[in-house]
Amino acid sequence: REVKLPPGPSQFPIVGNLRELREVTHRSLRSLSKKYGSSLVFLKLGRRPLLVVSSADMAREVMKTLDLHFCNRPSFLAHSKFTYNRLDVGFSEYGPRWRELRKISIIELLTAKRVRSFSSIRREKVAEMIRAISASSSASVDLSKMFLALANDVVLGAAFGKSFREEERYLQTKLHTAMDETRILMSDFFFTDYFPEQLGWVFDVLTGRYARLKKTCAEMDSFLEKIIQEHLDRRNPEQEDFVDVMLRLNRDRHLTREEVKGLFMNILIGGTDTSTAVLEWTMTELMKNPAAMAKAQRELRTAVRGKHQVEEDDLPCFEFLNAVIKETMRLYPPAPVLIPRETTHPIDIAGYEIPPKTTVFVNAFAIGRDPEIWPDPEEFVPERFEKSPVDYRGRDFGLIPFGAGRRGCPGIDFGMTALQLPLANLLYCFDWELPEGMSREELDRDESYGIIVKRKNPLRLVPKKSIHMQKF
Ligand code: HEM
Question: Which UniProt keywords apply (predicted)?
Answer without folding.
Answer: Heme, Iron, Metal-binding, Monooxygenase, Oxidoreductase, Signal
